[in-house]
Give the backbone structure.
Amino acid sequence: MKHHNKKRTLGRKTGQRTALLRSLARSLILAGGITTTIARAKELRPFVEKLISASKANTTASRRTVSARLGGSPDAVLELHQKIAPGFKARVGGYTRIVRLGRVGKRAIESARIELVTADGK
């Protein structure tokens, strides 16, 4: 039975899924926006939003927490704490936006673009 299993497995085992989310989160933080499938974007959104909320505190503990969640990527941690989080100080949540792109490519999979909302909300 699938009681209390509301997260998407994305067709992967736990370790592979964690690695995928970490990789997508790093790419999103460093690039500001990425194109992926709708299911991956929907799973990535809460993962990244929790990282941004934690990095808004800008303490040593928050840096270590974010670094552990991202798998020890120092460039992404610095980007998150020094550039992204200060822009969201006044914002309570909703740091990302998912835009559906429709069917893209030969496989015709529903694609989406997930991007960080700018500080002014646009």
The helical segments are 14-31, 38-55, 60-70, 74-87. The mean pLDDT is 92. The radius of gyration is 15 Å.
